[in-house]
Amino acid sequence: MKTVLIVEDEKIIRQGIRTMVQRSGVPVEIIMECSNGEMALDILREQEVDVMFTDIRMPKMDGIQLVKEVQKLARKPEIVAISGYDDFSYAVEMLRNGVREYILKPVEREKIVEIMAKLEEELSAHMQKNQTEKKFGLAQIKHLLAEEEIKEEELALLVEKYEDIFFPGEYVVCVAGKDFEMEMRNDIFYVDDLPNCNLCILSQELLEVLLKNELWNQYAGISGTHLGVAEFRKAYQEALEARKRAFYQMKPVVYFDDPLPKVPEGLLTQARRHVEETAWTQRLHLVGTERTEELGTHWNTLFTELKKCHIDFKEFEDGMLTFLQDLHNLYRSMMTEEKSQRLEALSNIYGFLHSEAYEEALMNLVLEVHSEVNQREDNSKNQQKIKQAIAYIDEHYNEDLNMAVVSNEISMNYSLFSFAFKQYTGTNFVTYLRDIRIEKAKKLLAETDLKVIDISQQVGYDNEKHFMKVFKSVCGVSPTEFRKNMSQS
Fold first, then answer.
1. Are 474 and 438 in contact (CB under 8 A)?
2. Which of 37, 168, 190, 251 makes an SS bond possible with 66, Cβ 3.0 to 4.6 Å?
3. Predicted confidence (pLDDT) per residue in 114-135, tens digit
4. Rounded distance, CA 130 to CA 150, Å?
5. Longest dimension (CA), the chain
6. What distance in Å separates the CA atoms of residue 443 and residue 438, rounded to the nearest whole number?
């Protein structure tokens, strides 16, 4: 049992009942006290109470009037009436108005223990049944949201089974992003696993409390006031529409009946161009080009128009989903599992907190792909240049050749050439040129009678001694020994 409320104008009796409740053996989280019916009614309107003990004769509002007012509330506690012998006729009237138990003063501890145990058992059984029904009812409520049309007999069944559980009185629907979380409560129906949002169903009175606590920074949409299961789909659509406005306009809360900003038709016509097919195609084609700044400007302009409500949300949604699919298809080869997951998350637009969070996530991915495409294209261009460099080396290896000469020949930055050359060949420029010259020298030593000094000059070494030193470091023998070994083989 969570909450017990004791309504009694005599402080000593009130405190005595409190002590008896505490010692009843039934665990109670909160015990509240007040001295008259008006105060009790204020409490009951603000929060859920499981059991209320109330005296009959009290100032301002007596127990009889309090019980009658309680019957008008969506959340009714189990009521135990307390009275003297002279009030028995009043107690009978209270029993007719929903009072569960009636006890006489002076209040006996055994009677409190008996009543508390009985009500605890009933409340626990009711709660378990309620939770089971809510579990099955949740699937039915989702079905109500998902289906385009609900047959009258289906709707009648939903009303019969779940009206009192989910929609006991007038309610509003609140829709927020997937970050919106709250603890399950008996007086608020919370759903956290819908495709693009989390929502709750609650009374108008509780909404004010929720806005101060859980909802104040959730960019939520609030429906108008509705009644019953039959109006739930309409309430949900209203809340969803309001949520979209909160999402794009960056407002913490938007009500469905909040007026839309007035925009001249000329501005709307101009803004619609940003969601035309050609505009989406241009954004896609800018990916991987050198026009990075233009790519960012295109997206920034689109989201700016959305924040002003100049663009139809549905047109944006449809275009955005098509763009994401096209991006995936066009650059499938670089779509890692991590990128694919981010694309999937971006397909659920309203799962994000607000438009700026969505824009940031979107641009991080788009610019990442943009950068990788550029890098791949740069690598391809670099490879072509390095192939040109290798061809040039093969033709001019016997000349005074160095990296500066070759990089200038193919018009490539010196540092970039060094990096790209090693990436392509697996070795640095000096080693590559040395190995080519030595291979050419080995061939001349084996196939000709040219002197070593002549061979060294033909393969690009002006200094014979330097050539001999390099040759031996690579081949393990001197040029003369190499020739001798080749002639004997």
1. yes
2. 37
3. 999 999 998 888 877 777 766 6
4. 25
5. 139
6. 9
pLDDT at 165 exceeding the cut of 70: no
Q: How far apart are the first and last CA of the chain?
A: 101
Which amino acid is residue 161, in one-letter code? K
Closest to 4 (Cα-Cα) out of 123, 128, 167, 130: 123
Contact 246, 253 (CB under 8 A): yes
User: Which string of DSSP letters, residue by residue, matches 115-143?
Assistant: HHHHHHHHHHHHHHHHHHHHHHHHHHHHH
SS3 label, residue 78: strand
Question: Which region holds residue 113: left if phi is over 0, alpha if psi is between -120 and 50, else beta?
Answer: alpha
Residue 208 corresponds to which tokens in the numbers above? 């004010």
- Residue 326 gets the label, from left (phi > 0), alpha (psi -120 to 50) or beta, of alpha
Looking up tokens 């209270």 gives: 94
472 in Cβ contact with 478 (< 8 Å): yes
Q: How would you label 315-330 residue by residue, b for 16+ Cβ within 10 Å and e otherwise? A: ebbebbeebbeebbeb
Minimal CA–CA distance to 206: which of 173, 229, 181? 173
Structure tokens at 304: 């700016």
Partners of 55 in beta bridges? 82
Between CA 447 and CA 451, with CA 448 as vertex, the angle to 5 degrees is 135
Query: What are the backbone angles phi and psi of residue 251, rounded to the nearest 5°?
Result: -105, 135
Q: What does the DSSP 8-state code read for residue 262?
A: P
Q: Give yes or no for a contact between 274 and 280, defined as CB atoms under 8 angstroms apart.
A: no
As a whole number of angstroms, the distance between CA 379 and CA 373 comes to: 10
Q: How far apart are CA 298 and CA 319, in angstroms?
A: 14
Backbone angles phi, psi at 229, to 5 degrees: -60, -35
SS3 at position 71: coil
Per-residue pLDDT for 305 more than 70? Answer: yes
Please classify residue 211 by burial: count the beta carbons closer than 10 Å to its beta carbon, then call 0-12 exposed, 13-18 middle and 19+ buried: middle
Question: How far is it, in rounded angstroms, from Cα 447 to Cα 333?
Answer: 50
Helix (H, G, I), strand (E, B) or coil at 279: helix
**Both tokens assigned to 240:** 């969803």
pLDDT band at 155 (very low <50, low <70, confident <90, very high): confident
The 8 Å CB, 24+ separation contacts for 8-16 are 8/33, 8/35, 8/53, 8/54, 8/55, 8/58, 8/82, 9/35, 9/36, 9/55, 9/57, 9/58, 9/59, 10/55, 11/35, 13/55, 13/105, 13/107, 16/107
Alpha-carbon distance of 433 to 347, in angstroms, equals 53
pTM exceeds cut of 0.70 = no
